[in-house]
Amino acid sequence: MTTYLEATQELGRALFMRGIEGPVVMLNLLRFREVADYSHAPELAPAEPISGAAAYDIYVEQVQPHLEASGGKLVFKGEGGQFLIGPEDERWDLAMLVEQSSLESFFAFAQMPGMNAILAHRTAALVDSRLLPLAPLA
């Protein structure tokens, strides 16, 4: 099974080339690990093992000020599950809508100082994810 945790440079370039004007909303679909995996950043691991959901909560808490400083906001956060229309064997634990004021502010947010350490909690938390940029229709 292929999993997706990070954007590639090619996909980032393709997003930029879309030339989205105005706000962009990111649809996040997230599936958590039973136990967070901090093997890539052991210095950030809690003293005792925690769930992927708990590691993601740490990520959200730490990223929120940076998101707001860049002109972004969390629009919706909700518990997932199985699709009503979609693959029967596919499920997502959490869905979120995050709005950025512009594509430029999204890219600036992603490159803010200290973001790599914050993103390590996201990586520890997730077994799979999807991130779909949505542009408003005129």
Q: Mind explaining what this structure looks like?
A:
With 138 residues, the chain is α+β, with helices and mostly antiparallel strands. The protein has a single domain (21-134), classed as Alpha-Beta Plaits (2-Layer Sandwich). 33% of the residues lie in helices and 28% in strands. It contains four helices and four strands; from the N terminus they run H-E-H-E-E-H-H-E. It has helices at residues 9-17, 52-69, 103-110, 115-125; strands at residues 24-32, 73-82, 91-100, 126-134. It has a four-stranded antiparallel beta sheet with strand order 2-3-1-4. Strand 2 (73-82) and strand 3 (91-100) form a beta hairpin. The longest helix is centred in the middle third of the chain and has 18 residues, at 52-69. The termini are far apart. The mean pLDDT is 95.
What tags apply to this protein structure?
single chain; 138 residues; alpha+beta; Alpha-Beta Plaits; 4-stranded antiparallel sheet; 4 helices; 4 strands; 28% strand; globular
Summarize the structure.
The chain is α+β, with helices and mostly antiparallel strands. The chain has helices at 9-17, 52-69, 103-110, 115-125; strands at 24-32, 73-82, 91-100, 126-134. Strand 2 and strand 3 (91-100) form a beta hairpin.
